[in-house]
Design brief:
Blueprint lengths: L13 H12 L2 H4 L2 H37 L5 H9 L2 H30 L8 H18 L1 H30 L24 H16 L4 H5 L6 H30 L5 H5 L9 H8 L5 H34 L16 H20 L1 H10 L3 H22 L16 H15 L3 H5 L3 H7 L2 H16 L20
Length: 483
């Protein structure tokens, strides 16, 4: 029997960290749903929204990098908020983030059934879903290295697909590939392009872009299991940001040039119809046989990658909360391979039960998914606030920025801009429902916010916590998971 400890294994390498964050951010949002962003706001609006959100994510990554290199711990958001802002904020962020990823695992395993039905429509969907859930559990229970290696190769498939797509798309635009003359930038000038729908459309795409970039914060979760966090985290942050921004902005620019924003296929793209994925349409344009089948396989790897990352992230967050007292101490136990087994089992059970609600009835399942919808943005807001407080306390207590292994540039502009933009995206989640006072839609769209507030206020009331003064913040760096 595996010996129980409280220590996780520090075995993730720099290449693992880069690919984990990159793989977490390149998924069905790019391969399938990016067409909807172009249809909604036009080519210019979509590109502008992704650039703006990309800038915000860069500031968030640098904020997280400064704290994670100074204090590398698993479940970092909860720990940083607890130590630099208010323990109640750490408690609420931790449970909210765990819940979000546990639900995401269920959503992803349910999606695998839709993807597999493309090839095997006669097989019951639950067979695929439970099989993939078992596979993801096995990957995560073996070791953190097994998780890192699996995620590395799944992410690599996505990266190669995007690179091939960009090459094919650019050659199609200039007329080297495909039938007929060069397309050029003609589709950027048709109708109301390049900017369509004004501010409401732009804000709607901001939300879509924000969801697409979620997963980059996984670097903070992995910090506690990195072999050399002081060097690997800064490298991962810089490389991942530029790759993500390059991939997303270039991919959207290519799609918008080849497929007009007025195309009904762009607006109708969904995980249920890979045949009208923007990537599939572009590949078909140059006569690639089996384009839909190829993209379906890539989308399957994306969904599995997301589920794999979700299982890892939620397990480590629950482990960290067990170690800090925010969750039962049982969840702080790890086996002799450094895997938080009780936390992994609990997360798997919640994911399986959530998936079962999708089989038994859509109402409960839809509510659970809605409840987790804005949690990523709440985590981003928590990261920005925590970093702002950390740096101010660091200077107030007589330290110099030069003492930090890695320091975020443009302070305090970076975290303040990230706070503002995160708040805009949170509130702009469903402006239609707000403007028309549609209470049913408001409840579904914004359910994450009251759940977070209940956790925050409940902990604050019970434990009588307060906003920590800058001079009382504990800045002692520690490696809790190092034993």
């Amino acid at each position: 029997m595996a010996k129980a400890t409280d220590t996780v294994a520090r075995t993730l390498k720099t290449r693992h960290l880069s690919m984990i964050a990159l793989g977490g951010s390149i998924g069905t949002g790019l391969f399938v749903a990016s067409g909807g962003a172009i249809a909604t706001a036009g080519p210019g609006g979509a590109i502008l929204a992704y650039c703006a959100i990309g800038l915000m994510v860069y500031f968030l990554m640098t904020s997280l990098g400064e704290m994670a290199t100074y204090m590398p711990v698993s479940g970092s958001f909860s720990e940083y908020a607890s130590r630099f802002v208010d323990p109640a904020l750490g408690f609420a962020l931790g449970w909210n983030y765990w819940f979000n990823w546990a639900i995401t695992v269920a959503v992803d395993v349910a999606t695998t059934a839709i993807v597999m039905h493309f090839w095997l429509p006669a097989v019951p969907g639950w067979v695929f879903s439970l099989s993939f859930l078992a596979l993801i559990f096995l990957i995560n229970i073996i070791s953190v290295r097994a998780f890192g290696e699996t995620e590395y190769w799944l992410a690599l498939i996505k990266v190669v697909t995007v690179l091939v797509f960009l090459a094919v798309g650019l050659l199609t635009i200039v007329g080297v590939l495909g039938a007929g003359p060069a397309i050029g930038l003609h589709n950027y000038q048709i109708g109301s392009a390049p900017f369509v729908g004004g501010l409401p459309a732009g804000l709607a795409v901001f939300v879509v872009a924000g969801f697409s970039f979620q997963g980059t914060e996984l670097i903070g979760i992995t910090a506690g299991e990195s072999e050399t966090p002081e060097t690997s985290i800064p490298k991962a942050i810089h490389s991942v940001f530029w790759r993500i921004l390059l991939f997303y902005v270039l991919a959207i620019a290519v799609i918008a040039a080849i497929i007009p924003y007025t195309s009904p296929n762009l607006l109708g793209a969904s995980a249920k119809d890979v045949a009208i994925s923007p990537f599939t349409l572009v590949f078909q344009r140059i006569g690639l046989a089996g384009a839909a089948s190829v993209m379906n396989a890539v989308i399957l790897t994306s969904v599995l990658s997301s589920a794999n990352s979700g299982m890892y992230a939620s397990t480590r967050m629950l482990w960290a909360m067990g170690a800090s007292g925010f969750a039962p101490r049982l969840f702080a136990k790890t086996n002799d391979r450094g895997v938080p087994l009780p936390a992994l089992l609990a997360t798997t059970v919640v994911g399986a039960l959530t998936f079962l609600t999708s089989v038994m009835g859509n109402e409960v399942y839809s509510l659970l998914v809605a409840a987790s919808g804005l949690t990523g943005f709440i985590a981003w807001l928590g990261i920005a606030v925590s970093h702002y407080r950390f740096r101010r306390a660091f200077l107030r207590q007589g330290h110099q920025v030069s003492e930090l292994v890695y320091h975020a540039k443009w302070f305090p502009v970076g975290p303040l801009l990230a706070i503002l933009m995160s708040a805009v995206v949170l509130l702009g989640q469903d402006m239609n429902a707000v403007s028309h006072f549609n209470w049913g839609r408001l409840l579904v769209s914004y359910m994450s916010i009251p759940l977070f507030l209940v956790l925050f206020i409940g902990y604050k009331w019970r434990h009588k916590t307060h906003l920590l003064r800058l001079d009382e913040i504990d800045l002692t760096p520690h490696h809790r998971d190092a034993g």
